[in-house]
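Chapter summary example.
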Amino acid sequence: MSRIGRMPITVPAGVQVDIKGYQVKVKGPKGELQREFSPLVDIAMNGAEITIARHSDLPAERALHGTTRAVLNNMIHGVSAGFVTILEWDGVGYRAEMSGLNLVLHMGFSHPIVVEPAEGISFEVDIKTRQIKVMGYNKEVVGQVAANIRKVRPVEPYLGKGLHYLGEKIRRKAGKSGKGKK
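The structure predicted for these 182 residues follows.
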């Protein structure tokens, strides 16, 4: 049995879960999410707990057991607390700012890059700590938007300039060594 799949999901107060067959709708203070899951696993609600069960030990069902539980848990956590991904930037002249709801990046190009937020996504920029916060209730969308922002100017390995996730290990390379002795 999957250790993750066996764990029940507790539904916090203020979150409504509607299970109709394999269609699950989750509604909370941050937003509403809906998803259809595979028929290879069963989703059942017992009071304020949701359990995931599989029919057999076939590899396809075993793989979906833990995945279904994790996705459903992320949906519930997202509509109740939300998700935040933090990006940092390094580099002389690089900066980020807000223009209404849009994020404007000045990353050494001849023009600024304007990033419009997807549905349910908001941005926050802290100039002092050089951080961009991507916030939302759908974990997949938050991660994808953060990855798209990082893709604007990925960190280069020689000077470490560019956009990176908070706490990301930057792999550095040695530059050219000076002229050899004769």
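To summarize the output: The domain at 83-165 is CATH 3.90.930.12 (Outer Surface Protein A; domain 3).
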